[in-house]
Write a structure and sequence with these properties.
Layout lengths: L2 H17 L3 H16 L3 E6 L2 H16 L9 E4 L4 H10 L5 H9 L5 E5 L6 H13 L2 E7 L11 E5 L4 H26 L1
Parallel strand pairs: 1-2, 1-3, 3-4, 4-5
Helix pairs in contact: 2-7, 3-7, 5-6
């Protein structure tokens, strides 16, 4: 097999997995996020590693990419991004509480937490979801495989239909961009 063939095979497999996604659930997520904006609430995102990059990218697209008709984008903050705060909390307390501590400090009822975890078992994501529920924060999760421990803690959970971590992360970013495209369309119609 050539490298070109392997690359093409990977792309075909990802495309096939995308088409197996739960688009009705994605539509429900879009509606919930639009309601957050119209209600004046905040979206918080979190993830580790590649999922942290996706969480950060999602905030970027919500804040800047969803500026429709000269109106401001969403209030969205990535809990993975404040490096000094994350490393302080991890060093002084535990890596497991880096997101939950921020939620306890900043978030309020009516806000939404969106988390990304390929396994669904990241301890700091699990703690954040528990904190969100105790605070009255709606939770949306993106995971893979069987959803792990996140499955029982998310109000809405979209599973990437694959066991490959690379493909799970690919699909999560595709979902983010699809969500942003649909939100922009919704906002164009309502603004």
């Amino acid at each position: 097999m050539t490298v070109s063939y392997l690359l093409q095979s990977y792309a075909v497999e990802v495309a096939q997995r995308v088409l197996k996604s739960d688009f009705d659930l994605l539509a429900t997520i879009v509606q919930r996020l639009v309601a957050v904006k119209t209600g004046g609430f905040t979206i918080y995102t979190a993830g580790n590693g590649g999922s942290s990059a996706t969480a950060s990218h999602f905030c970027n697209d919500l804040v800047k990419g969803c500026r429709i008709n000269e109106r401001e984008g969403f209030r969205a903050f990535c809990l993975s991004d404040p490096v000094a705060l994350v490393t302080c909390l991890a060093n002084d307390y535990s890596y497991d509480v880096i997101f939950s501590t921020q939620l306890k400090t900043f978030a309020k009822q009516g806000d939404v937490l969106v988390v990304f975890s390929g396994s669904g078992n990241s301890p700091n994501i699990i703690e954040a979801l528990k904190t969100a529920h105790a605070t009255g924060i709606f939770t949306i999760g993106f995971s893979g495989r069987d959803g792990g421990k996140m499955k029982e803690l998310c109000d809405l959970l979209l599973l990437a239909p694959t066991d490959s971590m690379e493909q799970i992360e690919d699909l999560h970013l595709i979902y983010v961009h699809a969500i942003i495209s649909a939100i922009k369309d919704e906002l164009h119609r309502s603004y």
